Amino acid sequence: MAESRTIRWSAVGTRWLGIGLASIIAVVTLGLGLSGQLTLYISPESIWFACAGAVVVLLGAIWSFTLPLGTESDHGHDHGMPSAAVTEPVEVSTASRRRTLTLVGTVSAGVVASGVVVAALVLPPASLSVELAMSRADADPTLFAGADTPTLGVADTTTFGVGEWSSVFATASRPEAYDGSPVTLVGFVTPGDADAVNLTRMIITHCVIDAQPAAVPVTMDADEYGTGQWVEVTGTVKADADGSLRVLPTSVVTIDEPGDPYEY
């Protein structure tokens, strides 16, 4: 009887670590997708794929209820009686230690995985922190290369965001060609030079794991806006004599964090 209960609980644990955790993650994914908050974790182009995968997982979870507990451990054949070698004391001791280590590893992984899933359920969706952006501030600006692709020698800047302008500021071969270009940019404030701040935005290629900060210098009083304050800057690009570029603002308006705080 005790052995039967042990086998049953083992089967329940196996199913929880498999389809149980996957189903909860699928429900969370669909909830974030329907609420429009999934863009806090992945790029908009990937949302349909993530939601479709979540639906497939839930369908698999429903189907799994038609299978009896313990099916996952059924290899489809009988192991038969152990060989004589297995009955030796040394081999039995080794097998016992191996089973113990396997159990400890499984339980540890289960606790960690369950903790992650519970955190996904309890913690509210949040954007990447300003501290993370500042810690990654030394990212290679050519990560966003492609913004300076010339059209008759000068890129079309009318749709540029912080990421594209960051690439231009770092790699433009003709910085004077951008002098006087109008800009309207949204980002958060991070420390810059003595007479400027950096207007920063996190750039995502696929998901938050590959997020990197992009920043452009804006000539304004650093003491007027706290680090992390979201602002909308309207102004023009200024090319200095040394070839560096910066933004001269005509208007700086403090705003709340946008619903979609990233650029892609």
Summary?
This protein is of the alpha+beta class. It is 39% helix and 17% strand. The longest helix has 34 residues, at 2-35.
Using only CA atoms, what is the Rg? Answer: 28 Å
Q: What percentage of the residues does DSSP assign to strands (E)?
A: 15-25%
Structural class: alpha+beta
Please bin the fraction of helical residues. 25-40%
Kindly provide the name of the CATH class of the largest domain.
Mainly Beta
Measured between the Cα atoms of the first and last residue, the distance is 58 Å
Largest sheet, spatial ordering of strands:
3-2-1-4-5
CATH superfamily of the largest domain: Nucleic acid-binding proteins
Whole-number tally of structural domains: 2
CATH second-level architecture of the largest domain? Beta Barrel
How many helices does DSSP assign? Answer: 5
Q: How would a crystallographer describe the biggest sheet?
A: 5 strands, antiparallel
SSE order: HHHHHEEEEE
Given as residue ranges, the uncertain stretches (5+ residues, pLDDT < 50) are 81-87, 145-152
User: What name is given to the CATH topology of the largest domain?
Assistant: OB fold (Dihydrolipoamide Acetyltransferase, E2P)
* Structural shape: elongated
Pfam families: DUF1980_C
Keywords: Membrane, Transmembrane, Transmembrane helix
InterPro entries: DUF1980, DUF1980_C, UPF0703_membrane_permease
Transmembrane segments: 12-34, 46-65, 101-123
